[in-house]
Amino acid sequence: MRGQATRAGILAEMTDGEASGVAGPVQTPAEAVLALLAELSPDLRGAAILAGDGTTLAASGEQERWREDAAALLTIADGAGDGQVEQVHIATEQGEVFAVRHAGLAVVAVTDRFALASLLFFDMRSILRELAAGDGGGDAA
Amino acid sequence: MPPKPHRILLDRVSGYADEAAAYVRRRRISRRPFARLYYSGGRASDHAADSTAGGELFVAAGRLIELAGKRQRR
After folding, report:
1. Looking at the partner chain, which of A46, A81, A112 has a beta carbon nearest the beta carbon of B39?
2. Does the model's ipTM exceed the 0.90 cut?
3. Is B71 on the interface with A (CB under 8 A)?
4. A103 touching B (Cβ < 8 Å)
5. Which domains are seen in chain A, by residue range?
6. pTM greater than the 0.80 cutoff
């Protein structure tokens, strides 16, 4: 009878995630730092983290589309000037786009207009540094 | 009778706040779209929207903005 189940019995029926109090699926390190960025930046609409080979480590929506569009932006930015860009900031009437490369990883973020650029760049670089220090999955290029 | 010191301080602080608010208002009205790239060593370059590279950057940025959609108010 369910009403008389012991605490040990209930725990035995639970999955590991439920038992440890973790809600939902386990986050990868990239997903964790992306969640941290979202928490740090109230203006953030969406973001993605790309590995050195262009694969998406984490994204706030459709991973495949983020991979394509973020890679396209970085490719165009690299071709626009001389050499590989380190940071990108594009401000439009509809929103702003930021990109930062660090240790072979890249993070691309979309924010509302008039986001505080220097703070966002700092946060983006911080999460990449944190990810690169752990097992971020980027091949440090 | 001379004004109390704290009144002078308050007037000065609110004066600075008014100036700052006006600056932000002017910036919001007058700020135009831009595309700025930063390179290692602190170099930076601006690309006008009517240049080839600038146009491509704005198109790529527009796709990302569309993909991200509107922000969920928290």
Report:
1. A81
2. no
3. yes
4. no
5. 26-133 (3.30.450.30)
6. no
